[in-house]
Amino acid sequence: MTDESHDLHVRNGLPAEFRYLEAGCARQDWPGLKLHETASHWLEIHGWFRGMLRGLIELGGERREGRLDPAAYRADVMPRLRQFLGNLDGHHHIESDSYFPALAALEPAMKRGFDLLDRDHEAIHELMSQMADAANALNHAAVVDLNPHADGLIAAIDRAAPPIGRHLSDEEEIIVPVLTLRGDPFRDARP
Ligand SMILES: [Fe+2]
Ligand SMILES: [Fe+2]
User: Fold this and answer.
1) How far does the centroid of ligand 2 lie from the alpha carbon of residue 104, in Å?
2) Ligand 1 (ion): which residues have CB within 5 A?
3) Average pLDDT, the chain
4) Percent helix, strand and coil across the chain, each rounded to 5?
5) Residues 185, 105: contact at Cβ < 8 Å?
6) What pLDDT, in 10s, does the model give residues 41-67?
7) Measured between alpha carbons, how far is 172 from 132 in angstroms, rounded to an integer?
8) Radius of gyration, CA atoms only, the chain
9) Closest listed ligand to the CA of 172
10) Closest Cα to residue 131, out of 65, 52, 68, 72?
11) Residue 4: per-residue pLDDT
């Protein structure tokens, strides 16, 4: 059973029922804690996605304010967006196909939390398709049509960024405590 208030496009943070591990491992404690190495690596990867998203939004802002013409916007945005989407797709596969099931086996009480993150991935996949379609349209647009297609891509990126940011943050608040308290099932020696 899913709760509609848990929907990525609706919720304002990680629901309380998935916060039961955070005593002693809440986000505000992370800087002073020895987090699991994999958790720290995860945070770095998410930092890269956040930085890329910020850059894509700034680029759209420059276009909107007229500091970039549509052709320059197209030349700048295409390789960055391709890299962002490719890496995000790969990251989601590693999470949904490998880590989430393995971590849910280590921490069965969090199974529904991992299900929530899987549903987020599906919602984000739709947003990624919309960005890819808009990029494709801009890529193949005739010169006279560059402007509206650039606007279309800027809108698709602006629409996708907040839910992706929400997901990154909520996922960290599940993954970091589970990895730090239970270990990495793919790296740590089992007794
Ligand atoms: Fe994720
Ligand atoms: Fe992630």
Assistant:
1) 15
2) 95, 171
3) 96
4) 80, 0, 20
5) yes
6) 999 999 999 999 999 999 999 999 999
7) 26
8) 19
9) 2
10) 52
11) 82
